Amino acid sequence: MTVETQTSRQGSVVPFTRIEGPDAWTAADYPVLEEAMLHLTPEHVSELDAAVESVLASGKKLQDVDPSDFSLPSLSGPLLEAGQQAQFGRGWALIRGVPVWRYSRQQQLAAYWILGLHWGRAVPQNAKGHLIGHIKDIGHDPKNPLTRLYATNAAQPWHNDGPADLVSLLCLSNAEEGGESGWSSSVSVHNEILARAPHLARVLAGPWFFDRKNEVPEGKKPFFEIPVFNYHRGYLSVNYSDNYYHLSQRHPEVPKLGPQHHEAMRLFNELASGSELSLRMVLQPGDVQLLSNHTCLHYRGAFTDSPAHTRHLLRLWLSPPGDRPLPECYADIMAGSTVPGKRGGIIIQGAAPNIPAEAE
Question: What Gene Ontology biological process does one annotation of this record name (predicted)?
């Protein structure tokens, strides 16, 4: 039996073997997404309302609020289970029913912060130190390679948000048209590449160079090296974002992408986006998506806003305690640390962590 035809599971992964388990899912496993969601009950919503009121009345800065500042007697358990599902199960969770349509902006931010505290420590998402990000078209040029695409209405290619263990979105409002959300199992993509082109799996486990898009921590280079397939202490963790690989080519020190790199990216994108491996939906106001950045990929379709319908989501990058071990190469994308609960974020000198009320 060749290595590529053996099987293993997370926690005891043998490199270049097919991985079995809940995070190696396909679209056929979830034919009705609504059945896989946590639907908030009236009791859950009532508890969340009270928690939001308590937090806002406390006088604390939102970023200083911790779980001792509120109580969710019946909701905390399901929220913690959703986090466990994202970290150690299938790699994702969906929640429906946060009443964002009747919340003020401060109430929306407080409610989301309260949810996020069940899943980990929020880490900064950009050079401005934003702990809650606003996913909204604010007119940035998507054709500029240095643009972070979440601030545009352009499609975002398949990727994971590398500087955090978990990424979450809360939908506040939808576009006039478009803005579909999709996600797929990077573990299943790995398995399919092993089956179809095992030589490319070894390319993806080799050196790849990642551009920082000018968000460069003090003392660091504007790029760093991190493989796509990372086998470490019995786990496969996948880090992928092809536009960052292409952008790294602007630096003379970075080796040029070769034919096998381009072949690997083409196959990776084809598998991630295919109907067999990907799930897709338009998030509705009040929907929350929670994904593992180590076992899931995601994408966002292009969208068109109108005066009456503007797409606006909130985002959290989260570092939970007790997550998987990561190899030392992740220190470059995880703010200098690979320690669970302490790693993650984009840390720029002089940028104090903050929670903006609006996109900026």
Answer: antibiotic biosynthetic process
pLDDT in tens, 103-145: 999 999 999 999 999 999 999 999 999 999 999 999 999 888 8
Q: How far apart are CA 319 and CA 335, in angstroms?
A: 11
pTM of the model: 0.96
Q: Give the β-pairing of 296-300 and 37-39.
A: unpaired
Specify whether the CB–CB gap between 11 and 22 falls below 8 A: no
What CA–CA distance (Å, rounded) separates 76 from 257? 47
| Cβ burial 239-253 (10 Å sphere, 16+ → b, else e) | bbbbebbebbeeeee
SS3 category, 270: helix
The structural domains of the chain, ordered by start, are 34-334 (3.60.130.10)
- Residue 290 near residue 79, CB atoms below 8 Å: no
* Displacement of CA 2 from its chain's centroid (Å): 33
Question: Which of 230, 255, 228 minimizes the C-alpha distance to 241?
Answer: 228
Is residue 329 helix, strand or coil?
helix
